[in-house]
Structures are given as C-alpha cells and as structure tokens.
Predict the 3D structure of the following.
Amino acid sequence: MNPINAMKLKIASFDFTCCEGCQLQLANRESHLIDFFELLDVRNFREISSERHDDYDIALIEGSISRRDEVERLLKIRQQAKVLVAFGTCACFGGINSLKNRFPLDKIVRDVYGDMAVETLPIRKISDLVKVDLSIPGCPVSKEEVERIIVSLATGSQVTLPKYPVCVECKQQLNTCLFELGEICLGPITRAGCNAVCPAGKTACLGCRGPAEEINMPAFLELVQERGLNPRDLQDKLAFYNAFEPLATDET
Amino acid sequence: MTRILSSDKLDNCVARWRKAGNKVFGPVKKETTSSYAAVESAAEFDLGLILPDRSVKELFFPQTEPMMRYSIKKQAIDTEDFQPPIEKRIIFGVRPCDASGLAIDDPLFGWDYKDDFWFKRRNNSVIITIACTKSDDFCMCTSLKLAPDSTKGADVMLRPLQNGKGWQVEELTDRGREAVKEIADLLQDSAEPTAPNAMVPEKFNLDACVAWLRNPENFESSFWKEISMRCIGCGSCTFLCPTCHCFDFQDEGDTYNGIRRKNWDSCSFALFTMHTSGHNPRSTQSARWRQRIMHKFNYFPGKFNVNSCSGCGRCSRQCPVDMGITETLQAISTLQP
C-alpha cells in the first residue's frame, strides 16, 4: 500500500576529503533504517553496500576538495547526477579542513609529510567547483533532517531548511543561555536544524551549519562586545568551519 | 490573632495533601534552572527563590501536548482524542505575578472556544501563593498596578511572618478553603506580625504608555525599529512569560499514523505569521516586536479589560541581549503621546 507513490531514489554517496562521519550517520537510527531504505535504491555507497553501479540520480558528496584527482572525480559525478547534494559541513563550507588554507602550502606539506611530499591543493568547498543543487550542512549531518529531506525528495515535495537560528531550538528547550555562563556561542547566528544539541549539552555552538537567513548580526556582535568577551575567541569560532565571513577587524 | 502555618509543619502538609490524592508542586531549583515541579516532600522546595526561572504557566499550558491521534485507513480516517488530565493538584509557593498570569489568561482560553485542557487543569488545581518579601531589579508588578501581595489568581494567600518561621494563612476561594481544611489541625493561632512586602519601585508610567500605544499615528513610528534592533529573535521572552499563550498545531507522524500536537509558538519568530504563499505580513523583527507590545497593552486589554502582563520581569531577566517589556515601556514612557 503506497498511496503517495513515493518513487525509489537512485542514490549514490561519495567521500572526498573528510572523515566519512556524515555518511555513517545514514546508517544510524536503526529504528527507522528499514523504512528509510525503502525509499532508496542504493547504487553506490561503500558504508552501506558492496554493490557498485554507475546509474544514480542523486549524488551525496561528503568532504571538501584537496587534490587534483578529486576534482576530476567530482566533475564526473556532476555529469551523471541529476541532483548533486553537498552533504555535511566540509562539502558545504570547507569545514575543519579549511584550517589548512591559513598556512603556506609548501610549509604544511613539509610539516605533515616530511620527505615524502605529496601534491595537494588548497581546500575548496563543492560549490567552488561544480553546481550544487542542495546543501545539507552539519558536522555531522542530522539524520532526522536527512530523513525529512529524503522523504521530501521521494514524494516530490518542497525541501526546506530552517531559516531561523539555533537560539530558537535552544530556547524551546529552556536551556540556560551560554552567554549567561560567560561563553561566546554562535547559536544566535547559526542555522537551526540540529535541535541545539551542543548548547543543550552546555557546549557553545561553533556554527557547523553556517549562517541562518533570519539573524541579527549587528545585535550578535554588540552582545559579544557588551559582555566583554574576547574578540579573538569570536574570530576563532567564526573561522572554525569556514562557514562565516571573517569579520572586518582593526588588527593587521 | 490569626492562623499561621509554621515552616516545620510544611512537610506534614505535603504528606497530608498527597495522601488525600493530590499531586503537590512547588518551586524547585535544579542544576541550572528552577521551575514549579512535582515534589514528594517539602524538603525539595526552594522557597528562597525570588521567583523560579520558568513560570507556572507550563503546568496549565504545557510546551507541547498531544490533542489527537489519527490513522488513515483505506476507506476512512480514524481519530481518537486525548483527554485533559483530571488529577487534583496543589501548587504551593506560587508567586503573585505567576498566579496573576493564570487569571489574566482565563478569559482568553474561554471567551469563544472553551479550552478543556486549560480549564480542567485550572479547576483541579489549588494555587497557594506566598507574598513576596524580596524582589530583584527586574521585578515590575507595581508598574502593572499589581503588588507583591496580589491575590489575583490565588486560592490561598500566605504572608510570611516577620520571624521567618511560617506564614499567615488566608483562604480566598472554595478550592482554597478545601485545601486548608485538609491541614486545619496543623495550623495554630498566633499574634506574630507578618514581614513587610518587598519594595518594588514603579518602573514606568503604564497609563502614559497605553495612551501612546492607542494613538494610531504611532503604529508606524520609527521607535519600533530602534527598540527592536537588539532582538535576536530567540523567543526566550515569550516562552518564559506567564501570560504569553500563542500556540500552533502540528501533525507529527508518517503517511498513515500520527499525532496532532499543540505546541508553544512565539510572535518573535518569522515563521509565526508566514503564509503558505510565502508572504509574511510581519516580515521584520520590528513588526513582530510591535505586535508583541501592542497585543499585551492595547489589543488584549481592549478585548478582555486586562493587560497581558503581570510584571514578573522574566522577559528582561532572561533576555540574552537585555531587552524586554520593561526596557520597551520605559522608552515609550519618555515619548510624546
């Protein structure tokens, strides 16, 4: 019985420069796993199946791009995929990998690989190289959100991400504000959808989901300043996932 | 001579009320937050709080509550209603501002559709208020023409004794008399004087504010933009407010089965008035903040003859960017009507 005629989505998942943690999330939540895979025809997904096929419609791309062969592979996937999804914070923004871009390339290759130098490129997010049809941010992605998006894709309904900030989800849980505890939390400016998992656990939000549309940036910056919190700490947090524009500063 | 309840008898009272089939609630401090919570003994109460972080509202109008279960079958749709709880409750140590908040919302939940979930709980609960003998910088009941010993919404009023060892007992309603009857033999007569009420200075001139809000010319005032510049739209003020009552219905479930839930909503969220078409009549935070203030001090009193604010000050106390009702009305007080 299937009154909405959900079509099975031919899906493939690919990892680039990343920890593969986002893809592993898809194998989590066992209670929903069978229903979830009912909607999917997994064509290529090494975390989940040993089968390999090249006919897929949806390509999930996890990770950022840091090598020449990754660029070629990505372009090929783009040719095949009808819907290309930047999957997780590294794919959407560059992620933690972007720390690399703060140093001269030859120095970091020397520091990490010593005499066994490898060819490497500065980190780029997926949309720097190919057209991205859908971005699902998160470090890692939230399985609940992915389930919701997959159901929307399968039933042909509109895919939406929350436009409001993490604060909203945090205050819904009536948590004590981390600013009250003397910390800089990026909750006021970061896109919701994670159910405020970090601030609810008394860890300041680092903005892995990137900026939300409906935020008040000037008020947020004033808040940090008024509370006498360290502007350097703010810079570090904003830069952590490379998801926010760096602030204009007086420092040279 | 008046009747008093001495502090060391409080635990006996809790036991007595519980034995009579009541669930007993009161101010309880947990690790980082305080609220009115169910207790088994009086030792769990924290009666030293100026007021709990969370208001008593959530015991009558929970943050989320199931209304209906539905299942879609081949030929029909089955529905099954959830029923409001019918347990008897004693809520001890409610602050006058919180008790007032309940009385303020009564007409709202009953003027048209009578909300059974609200009124079943109201009718099965006894509110035992303790007058305030201390306050903090955010308290503003007097600015709302209420007081640290307002009896509004209370079934029993307790006035702390000067010696700090108990409370003078004053029954206000039949429900209150019933609850006191169950502990009558634990009360004693005494001439001990009561402690003075907390001093809560008036923070703004309410009448002047209302006059300004009622002037239609001020609807488009640039004031709204200026005052709401700081708002980050987190919704904290509305969730903690003892009188904010907006809610939204959501169906949660899969294609065939689900639960319709009633959830707290907030006028400070952009989604609050978002139409299906994508048009949003309150598309800016200033329009949303204007609505909040107008609703509380212009539209609500216009309909129910009472302000939708009891002066607890939680909106300001808990606001991450330090803007609440007080700051806004103080600013309005200084404007020309």
Remarks:
- Chain A touches chain B at residues 1, 3-4, 35, 163-165, 167-168, 170-172, 174-177, 179-180, 188, 214-216, 218-220, 222-223 (CB under 8 Å).
- Chain A has ten helices and five strands.
- The longest strand of chain A covers residues 9-15.
- The mean pLDDT of chain A is 91.
